[in-house]
Design goal:
Layout (H helix, E strand, L loop, with lengths): L1 E6 L6 H11 L5 E8 L14 H7 L4 E9 L15 E8 L8 E6 L15 E8 L6 E7 L11 H15 L4 E7 L7 H7 L3 E2 H4 L18 E5 L4 E6 L11 E6 L1
Parallel strand pairs: 1-2, 7-8
Antiparallel strand pairs: 1-12, 2-4, 3-4, 5-6, 6-7, 8-10, 9-10, 11-12
Helix pairs in contact: 3-4
Length: 255
């Protein structure tokens, strides 16, 4: 199987982003995308691509798309807007792959529970699905971890966020792929909680940078893929492509 994970930066690099997704769609089975917007119309007064979910879906005719918002009416940078502007996670699953319902669970605050002007208050959910048509069940989880004043260190909220995801995992049977923009440094306890159960492919493959040249800040880790023991990585790439301020993570694997 092949999985592509990417923080889409709300479509700020729309043309290169969609070209990349179309190219990858030839042999990808599942896309896990963060910072997706699903307003179903264009708003000329904002920089975010407000119709991004539909526009990407139109370029993936062989896939079924699933969207789970965290907030509505706020940009990813915390700016409130006078529009319906759902922001959250999306999965696109190749049609014909058997799976259960695509669900989500909030692991920080609750839907739309935000404080005006405070980006750190944006709620966080994890989107998940179980693929059922394989030798054994495979659970894929798509996650965008909380942002906290530009820091990617531990705090009580991030630790609790990790524990809530592990609690979700404890109720799922089968193998696991947990992916997304965690907003964490590699040495954090929040990440180590996952590593107690899952293999960190960013560490395993020696990846030292998950941000592109479009990102100017010095901390270069944010994105991770963690897998259970029986997920065998055939290849894992994190190429520096100008499609977002995050690099895509491209994993080919077997069970």
């Amino acid at each position: 199987m092949k999985l592509v994970s990417l923080n889409c930066w709300c479509g700020h690099e729309f043309e290169t982003l969609t070209s990349f997704i179309e190219e990858q769609s030839r042999d990808t089975d599942v896309f896990c995308l963060q910072e997706m917007v699903d307003a179903k119309q264009d708003f000329s007064d904002i920089d975010d691509r407000s119709n991004l979910m539909t526009e990407i879906g139109n370029r993936l005719p062989a896939f079924d798309g699933f969207f789970h918002p965290m907030i509505d009416g706020m940009l990813a940078d915390g700016t409130l807007v006078d529009h319906e502007l759902p922001l959250g996670q999306a999965m696109f699953i190749r049609r014909g792959i058997a799976h259960g319902d695509v669900k989500d669970r909030f692991v920080y605050r609750t839907y739309n529970q935000i404080i005006e002007g405070d980006i750190s208050s944006i709620p966080r959910n994890v989107q998940y699905v179980t693929l059922t048509g394989l030798d054994r069940p495979l659970n894929i989880l798509n996650f965008h971890g909380l942002w906290w004043n530009s820091y990617k260190d531990d705090n009580e909220h991030r630790l609790e966020q990790s524990r809530k995801i592990l609690d979700l995992l404890s109720g799922l049977k089968g193998e696991v792929v947990l992916t997304g923009d965690f907003n964490l440094k590699p040495e954090t306890k929040s990440l180590a909680l996952f590593e107690g159960r899952l293999r960190n492919l960013i560490k395993e493959f020696g990846v030292t940078d998950t941000r592109t040249s479009l990102y100017k800040k010095p901390i270069r880790h944010a994105d991770y893929i963690l897998v259970s023991e029986n997920v065998k990585a055939k290849s894992f790439e994190v190429p520096d492509l100008p499609i977002s301020d995050h690099r895509p993570m491209i994993l080919e694997f077997s069970l």
